[in-house]
Amino acid sequence: MKKFIVVLAAALSLVSLPALAAKKPCDELKAEIAAKLDAKGVKGYTLEIVAPENVKDAKVVGTCDGNTKRIIYKRN
Length: 76
Description:
Radius of gyration: 17 Å
Mean pLDDT: 82
Largest sheet: 3 strands, antiparallel
Number of domains: 1
Low-confidence stretches: 4-9
Shape: flat
Distance between the termini: 57 Å
Oligomer: single chain
Structural class: alpha+beta
């Protein structure tokens, strides 16, 4: 029974994880993405926060503010 409760708790925490990630503020997520790119040595890029309808053919690297905005990556 204890094993079942542990497995159930783990499953519930995994299910709620995407919902928590989607509500992250855009500025915070943009800073995290920029830090990861900088750590990998990526140079000459721009990250921009846009509405979903303004993505066009840009590469989406993040979703934020409750899935209402996108962070796009562009090479300079």
